[in-house]
Design a protein that fits this description.
Largest sheet: 2 strands, antiparallel
Oligomer: single chain
Strand order of the largest sheet: 1-2
Bound molecules: zinc ion
Structural class: alpha+beta
Number of strands: 2
Distance between the termini: 87 Å
Shape: elongated
Radius of gyration: 22 Å
Length: about 70
């Protein structure tokens, strides 16, 4: 009577933090700190964005700074 019970832990399902694609659906998935992942497709997209010349009409990801000056 041999019980060959393999208690292998299933590999955690990593997914791209940006697009949500699982690790097995993309070619490469890079891990960052605090369980942040980015796939090769998002890297390519980000690279094309940061290498593109900035345009004034492009929407800004950051919220516009509100004028919070000292009230006299
Ligand atoms: Zn992605």
């Amino acid at each position: 009577m041999t019980e060959c019970e393999t208690t292998q832990t299933s590999p955690p399902s990593y997914a791209c933090t940006f697009c949500g694609q699982p690790w097995d659906a993309v070619q490469r998935l890079l891990a960052g700190p605090n369980r942040v992942y980015i796939c090769n497709e998002c890297i390519t997209l980000c690279y094309s964005i940061i290498t593109a010349p900035p345009t004034e009409d492009a929407p800004c990801d950051l919220p516009p700074a509100s004028p919070t000056g000292p009230t006299l």
